[in-house]
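Office hours follow-up: a student asked to see two folded examples consecutively, so here they are.
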Amino acid sequence: MERSTPISVAVLGLVSGLLTTAPTAAEAAFTAIDFPDATATDALDINSAEAIVGRYVSATDGNTHGYLRDKQGEFTTVDFPGANFTVAAGIDSRGDIVGNYRLRGEPAMVRHGFLLSNGTFTSIDPSGSVFANALGISRRGDIVGRYCTVLPCVPVHQHGFLLSGGEFSTIDFPGAVGTSAWGINDRGEIVGGYQDRNAKSHVYLLREDQFTTIDFPTAVDTAPFLLKGGINSSGDIVSYYCSLEPCLVGIMLMLDNGSEHGFLLSDGEFSTIDFPASRATLGFGINASGDIVGSYHDATGKEHGFLLSP
């Protein structure tokens, strides 16, 4: 049932420098998201019903768990059966969830993708992979993510994937040394990230088998470490960028230098997203209404999720 074939693409060109920048998002629209008694929380995706998925680190057992937060703010833990590590990374309009997990006893660097649909978990592992993250799902059930055939699964070893109709296709940006696929909308447009041969990271849009590179204007790196981003049905894209070297995205210590920012690209305009008084802000997901979710580090370095409503 599985097959692995590269998607043939053509490079359209750089978006950066051709677009304008809009002001930073208004502070009043932000809501912090913290799973109860968690030491860290990320908000990774949001659907049209305003259901949010993400991950949290439990203060009780120290493990990473996935979660689902409904529109009313009620949390439910999402754990793959037998796993001691689970992340819920993407959700579609039907409420199907994708993510990744590691079973108890497996090496720390191993991951498997999963789909949770109607209460049933299904593993997602591209052929030959030793690491797989399922990161985004469309309403028609197409799933995108990243995988590696060698460990550690650092950006230079990564490939994107599309799972559609039960068949896997590999996504590799032309000339890149590493590629990840983060999100797919109902039109089949895919957003992801890649690392070039100079170790610089970029966001891409894959539409009708053609790639477009997206770099935030003035950024020294766009989506460093290729964590995640999102795209909605209108083609609006969220991700993050670094404005100063060194780029310290993902460091939850007192090392953040205030250079990591989220961004929204909508109708040809970039907007910076900074949670008020945060040390770093990352954008991860966006729904059809323009609600954005992501993560930020507060003044102490603690990680929280956020919801930014238009």
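And the second, which I mentioned at the end of office hours:
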Amino acid sequence: MSSNLKFMKPSQIKQSNFAKAQEVMGTTSSAVWTQHKTNEMLVEGYEGNSWVYACIHRKMQAAGSVPLVLQEYNEEDGFKDFKNDHPLKKLMNSCPGLSGKELVQMIVGQMDIQGQFFAKITYGGRGGLTPLEIYPMPIGSCSAVEIDGEAKQFKYMKRDGRTETLEAKEVLHIKDPHPDTIFRGMAPLKAGGKAVDVDNEAANWQKISMQNRGIPDGVFTMTGDIGPDEWEEASRQVSENYTGIENSRKPWVVANAKFEQMSQSMADLDFMQGRKMTREEICAVLDVPPPLVGILDKANYSNIETARKIFWIDSMIPKLSLIADQITSKFVKPNEKLRMVFDTSKVDALQESLTEKLTSAKDLFGMGVPLTVINKKLEMNLGIEEIQGLNVGYLPGALMPTTFASTPGASKDKNQSTDEVGEDSSSRMSDEDFDRISSVMDKVITNQMTREAAIKLLNIAIPYLDVSKIEELIPVVEVSNNAD
């Protein structure tokens, strides 16, 4: 345990070299950053920094919650789930010791740490052309080899130190594109490495400060000339008796020495604010809104819900789409109309609330939009596509088809003849006739009148209305064909 109490050594052991003095005091003229090698980003970042771990772990969990499915394209329906057997359906669940969800989590985690993911592919089946297993390679163990402008080989260093050369077909390489090269990915932690270093150093400084009572207390000035032995003994006694948590705020008793209190700087007082800035920078680099990793300084229910949507829309969906596209490119033949895709339709953060959907559905229905169109547009999944009549739009008053709607300006004069109303009077129904139809339909709906009776009544009451239109209308809104 080191002391934060500084003593001036006696003249005979002073350091004459200023650079050496800087080293002893822990100061330097330039910042020393972690070399952004893959293994160091793993140790210093994911394993050594709580905010990096929280962000990447959150993304890994989110990715693992979304199923990866195989879809087939047809001109009538577009892309739909592929119902038949296919090697790709089994491949993502064929990693020894890993489930399909865990494999997806590893892909996302490695892409954030090293910017890319490598997996060894085992082939078999007829002609040895069917991919049977994929096995993830450890972080930092594999790299692409450029040959004639292409990544035709990969170098894989095993855990025992041996190196193996793999052909391109034997390796699944998924990467975040680097703007300068096609042979490796761009790691977010490389861009955010300085923020991670600052946060780690700040945490270390705080820990050591707490061990040494939390603040630099001051200077002991020894009276008279002392030699190296006396200086070492004084340092030992102070370190043993006055530093460490167990000696916090313990009264100090010293002999032949004067203690001078040292003041705190404003930089010390602003220490925690600096750590807040670095943690938010880490979250920004890793595309995770701060509230989702427990940073709730300015959070409330509303903006947390918004943060979840931002997380999925701006971070996870592009990432998952990139992964699915690269898996498709690797395993789907050009003549196959197939694709791998992450099905995010069940992600809660991406779903409108039931209240929002019902409000939107009501507004659309009131504008005469058919229920089948509303169901598809709002993705309500009501399963009503096959129900006859729901592909017709209705006006809300008495659930009348829009084709029977009253036309503005239609005559309400009972004595006015059909010819006076217009040549196409059937398309310009009067308000009275509209009310008659509404009344009859209400009785049919409440089982106060049978369908047959309703048709006869409307045919008599509105002779210009074609019987076929009445018959088309009745079954659509009919609840029961029999009166009570």
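Two things to take away from it. The radius of gyration is 38 Å. Residues 10 and 227 are 6 Å apart (CA to CA).
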